[in-house]
Amino acid sequence: MRGKGLPLSLTVARYFVYVLVSMALIAAAWFGAFVVLGNSGVVYFASYAEQNAPEVVRMLEEGRLDPADLPACYRWAVFNDVGDVMASDLGNGETAEAWRTLREGASVVRYDGAAGAVRQVSAALPDGLTCVLQYDYLPDFVSKELRDALPDPQAIMTVALIASLVAAVALIAVRAARVISAKMRPLSEAAERIGRQDLDFSVGSTDVREVNEVLGAMERMRAALAESLREGWAADEARRREVAALAHDLKTPLAVARWNAELLAEGPLDAAQAESAAQVAESVDRMEGYVRLLVEASQACAAGSASGTVDAAALSAQVERQARQLCAAAGCSLAFEGASAGLLAGNGPQLVRAIMNLVSNAAEHAPAGSAVRVRLHVSGGDATDGDASDGVLRVEVADEGPGFSEAALAHGTERFFTGSFDRNAESGHFGLGLSIASDVAAAHGGTLSLANGREGGARCVVELPLAESGSE
Fold first, then answer.
1. Are the beta carbons of 357 and 387 closer than 8 angstroms?
2. Which of 163, 165, 156 lies closest to 33, judged by CA?
3. At what angle do helices 312-330 and 348-365 cross, to 10 degrees?
4. How far apart are the first and last CA of the chain?
5. CA separation (Å) from 465 to 229, 271, 324, 471?
6. Which strand (E) or helix (H) includes residue 43?
C-alpha cells in the first residue's frame, strides 16, 4: 500500500478550497441580492443621496418638492431666520446640530463611525424658510417606515453575510471531520482487532497515502504477531507433549524403585537397613509427586482449551463433595454455600481442579479445628432461568490461618513462587496451586485475586463470566 492514494495534505487542502469557494459564492449571492433590491426600488444605493443632492436642492428651491416628500435617504429640518424648527424628521439633538452646522456654513455635520461622514446641504424655500438635508454614504430603504424601524441595509447584509459564512464553514468542517474519520476508521479497527489478538484478518486500505503507509505497517505488524503467536503456541504444545512423555517414561523406573523398596521392607532388616529402605520409599513418593506436578503444570498451560458449558449448580456439588473430603482429612470443618443456577462456558474438570487447589491451600494453612469457608454465587445478570448473561460466578475461599504475606499478595499467583515470607513456606509446596488456579481462571475469561480478611486469614476470590444467552 506504500505510495498509493492521495497525499493527506491534498485531502485537507480540498476543504480549504471548499471554504474559499463557498465564501466567494455567498458574497456574490448577497451582493447580487442587494443589486436586485436596489434595481427594484426597495433600497437606495449608497451613492444615491450624494448624486441626487443638487437636484433635490433645486427642486426644493423652485417649490417643486415639499420637504415632507423628500426621499428616505435624506433627513431634514426646516428653520426660520432665528433658528426655530418649523418642521423636521430629525431628533431634538440633531436639529440643534443641523442649525449650528448651517450657521457655520459647514458641509460635514459629524463623523459617524462605520457610516463615515454625515453631510449636510441647505435649500432656501420660496416662503423664506431654510431647509437643511442630512445624508451619509450608505444604502438606505426607500420606505421611511422600514428606514426608521430597521438598521441600514448594509448592516443587515453584513450580519447576514457573516452568519452565512459561519454556517458554511461549520457545515464544511462537519463534513471534513466525517470524511477524515471514515478514512481513519481502518486504523482504529485494525488496532482494536490486533489489541484483542484477533489476527485472522487483512488490514484494509484507504485513498489517503499517509494512512495507507500506517496501515501497511500495521499489516506487517499483524502478520509478524500472528506468526509469533503461532510459533509460541506450537512451542507450548511441543513442551507440553515433551513433559507428558517424560512423565510417562518416568513412571516405569519409579514403579520398579517402589517395588524394590517394598520388597526390601518385607525382608529381615536391621535398624539401619530398615531406615534406608524407608528413605528410598519416601524418595520415590517425592519423585512421583514431582511427576504429578510436572503433568499438572503442563496441563494448566492448556486450561480451558476444551469448550462446553458448565452448570454452576453441578459445579458447586462437585466442589462441595471433594472439599468435604479434603477438609476432613486436614482436620478442619467446611462451611459451604453453593450456587443454584447459572451456566459457564468452559471446561468443568479444569474449573473443579482450580477451585480445589484454592481449597487445598486453605485447608493446609487453616488451624486444626477451624473452618474453611467456600462460597459460590452468581452476581449480575438474571440467573433465575439458569442463563444469566452479563453476570459472573464468584467463588470465594477463605480460611482462619495466618493470611498472606505482602510478598505473597504481590506474587502469589506467579508460578513456583515459594518466597520465604509466604505462609508455611517450608511445608513442601512448589508454588503451583495458586498459579494453576489463576491460569484456569484467565483461560475462562476470569480473574483470581488474593487478599487477607479483616479479622485475619487468607481470602481467594475467583470471578468467572457466565455464558451469553443462547450459548451451547
1. no
2. 156
3. 30
4. 42
5. 25, 58, 26, 13
6. strand 43-44
Q: Quick check: 56 and 154 in contact, CB under 8 A?
A: no
Residue 401, all three cell numbers: 490461618
Mean pLDDT of the chain: 83
Please tell me the distance from the alpha carbon of residue 472 to that of residue 451, in angstroms, as a whole number: 34
Here the cell at position 184 is 481513519
Strand runs labelled E in 298-342: 309-311, 333-337
117-124/447-452 β-pairing: unpaired
Distance, C-alpha 124 to centroid of its chain: 79
Residue with cell 481449597: 359
| Number of C-beta neighbours around residue 125 at 10 A | 18
What residues of the chain score a pLDDT lower than 70? 1-3, 5, 114-115, 248, 286, 289-290, 293-307, 381-390, 416, 418-431, 469-472
Digit-coded pLDDT (tens) for 254-268: 777 777 877 777 778
87 — phi, psi (to 5°)?
-165, 150
The pTM assigned to this predicted structure is: 0.47
Indicate the helix (H) or strand (E) that contains 184. Answer: helix 153-195
DSSP assignment of 277-329 equals: HHHHHHHHHHHHHHHHHHHHHHHHHTTT-S--EEEHHHHHHHHHHHHHHHHHH
Q: How far apart, in whole angstroms, are the C-alpha atoms of residue 228 and residue 465? A: 29
CB atoms within 10 A of CB 388: 24
Q: Would you state the torsion angle of the CA atoms of residues 223, 226, 231, 232, taken in this order, to the nearest 10 degrees?
A: 140
Q: What is the pLDDT of residues 436-452, one digit of tens each?
A: 888 888 888 899 999 99
The percent of residues in the chain predicted with pLDDT above 70, rounded, is 87
As a whole number of angstroms, the distance between CA 433 and CA 360 comes to 8
HSE (CB half, 13 Å, CA atoms) of 151? 9
